[in-house]
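Appendix C reproduces, verbatim, an entry submitted by the partner laboratory led by Prof. M.T., so that reviewers can inspect both the input and the predicted structure.
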Amino acid sequence: MEKSLLHVLSSLCFQGKIFFDVSARVDGTTKFGPGKRWGVFPAVSGRWNVVDEPWMEGTRKWLSMLSIRPGWGMTGNQPNKDYLYVNQYSAASNYFGATGMAPNNLKLKSLQWGMKYTWNVGFYLGFWDDRIKADINLYTQTTKRHVDGKCENIQYIRFHELSLSERG
């Protein structure tokens, strides 16, 4: 089994109030067949320190921090077994009283990276010189092409049809 990784990150700051981060991760593995081994997982996020804006000057006695943090990103997952994209066989000890060959798995030619897409927005609040703080986060997460980490005893799977969503 072979694995590769490349990660790139870039950050930008504007007037000390607005921040942007962009990243991309490229993973490669031999757990998937040719043409499906590489996954690209981008992410972007930002932060706006609203409290630092001139028009917020009148709130600084009681509001020490107000920032908004939106973000979006993708991650991937892979099975924990190797070579699921090819047929595998082993000796079977009882095939009509003789030793024979039996399949260990189904050939999963279309197996590819499971993808998780996440959107979020967070609000950070600080009151009276940060004596009281609040961190509020909302998110939605969708998993497409879910790959079970075990991939054992698979009888029939259509990966492109399985999608899971959660919100918080």
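Residues 149-161 have pLDDT under 50 and may be disordered. Additional entries are available on request from the coordinating office.
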